[in-house]
């Protein structure tokens, strides 16, 4: 087994390798004067079970091209099996045609990974479950919920907890959290006005005098979260927290969360944080142990189903 990484999130890759009991392999990644990516794998990977760690985070185009070129280099270096490890699968928000003349980029990225030579995909909390079906190679889809649930269970002051889905598409995720936390369930309907502005319209469920937890997979401009938090506050929620797997927060998103009723934003280190969290409570939980255990189990041909469970 060998583990390599691109430049998108070197810190996470080093933690994953350490937790897996392996050393991170040596890769030279540079740019030609015109910006093209150059990759050279310094270690011998012939016949290796190779794992390449690279979230498709900011800047996503650079991260994607680095990953594709690393996969191609590994394939031409005769690696036995190449597993692309994407803590964050970028371009997943465009997973269907919801208006004329738009792409399905989630499928495009799947095609690119397979064409480059990836034999397997390991990822966390896809934007939509059906993206797994875009691949003709095995996909191991992990969830951050066990890590986040353990964090929430340590909070003894949560009473009458209600898990809230900020849109109908996230109801299955919210139901999973509610079942693990033995909490109630609520749903918010929303109308998206633009890529960064969301209008929360209605609430289905009872949150009066309850601690609430909004769960989602991605936050960027925080329009969905801030709108949902305002609706919960107006409906009498006692406290409001948010748990989001992938934090792609921009400055506008930080301003919105800072001005919102959200007391704590819980997220993971699937992508590096680009902004300061001054003015609100930000908790970052690490995926390194989860991904390291998955890598070791895949290498040993063991089941990864146990990683879906929450330890009591």
From TrEMBL:
The keyword Cytoplasm applies. InterPro entries: PRib_PP_synth_CS, Pribosyltran_N, PRTase-like, PRTase_dom, Rib-P_diPkinase, Rib-P_diPkinase_bac. It catalyses: D-ribose 5-phosphate + ATP = 5-phospho-alpha-D-ribose 1-diphosphate + AMP + H(+). It is found in: Cytoplasm. Transmembrane segments: none annotated. One of its GO terms (cellular component) is cytoplasm. Residues 1-117 form the Ribose-phosphate pyrophosphokinase N-terminal domain. ATP binds at residues 34-36, 93-94. One of its GO terms (molecular function) is ribose phosphate diphosphokinase activity. Pathway: Metabolic intermediate biosynthesis; 5-phospho-alpha-D-ribose 1-diphosphate biosynthesis; 5-phospho-alpha-D-ribose 1-diphosphate from D-ribose 5-phosphate (route I): step 1/1. Its cofactor is Mg(2+). It is an enzyme of class 2 (transferase). Involved in the biosynthesis of the central metabolite phospho-alpha-D-ribosyl-1-pyrophosphate (PRPP) via the transfer of pyrophosphoryl group from ATP to 1-hydroxyl of ribose-5-phosphate (Rib-5-P). PANTHER family: RIBOSE-PHOSPHATE DIPHOSPHOKINASE FAMILY MEMBER (PTHR10210), RIBOSE-PHOSPHATE PYROPHOSPHOKINASE 1, CHLOROPLASTIC (PTHR10210:SF41). This is Ribose-phosphate pyrophosphokinase. It comes from Kiritimatiella glycovorans. The gene is prs.
